[in-house]
Task: structure prediction
Amino acid sequence: MDNKNKDQHSLEHLDHKIEKMFIQLQDLLITEAQLLKTEITSKSNHIKKAGFRFFFGITFCFFGIGALIIASILALSLYLTLFESALIICSLLLISGGVLLNSGRRALKMTEIKPKDTLKRVQKNAKFIQKDFA
Result:
């Protein structure tokens, strides 16, 4: 009878440990989900702000360049014909614009959305849990 009582106590103790472990696992998963949400929100805000700056920068540059184009063509037309002046200025602007657009595109590509920190923590926790069950 003593062995049966001992076995039942051991089973109850094991059951309690498993229940406690599942509660801790649930808390861990909820915490990781909250961290993932925070990290993704932070990165998306960064991209949104960068996108707004990029858009307004292009808009202001567009109007500024328009004024500079007119002024440059008029200034150069004092020495060359109006058509030659416009051709030279527009060629320089197209080359400069291509370089700037390529630079901006590369900068946006370098911003990574993937939540690396959270994924590392989840993988680490998964390995830890696998070790406990093994």
The two ends are 32 Å apart (CA to CA).
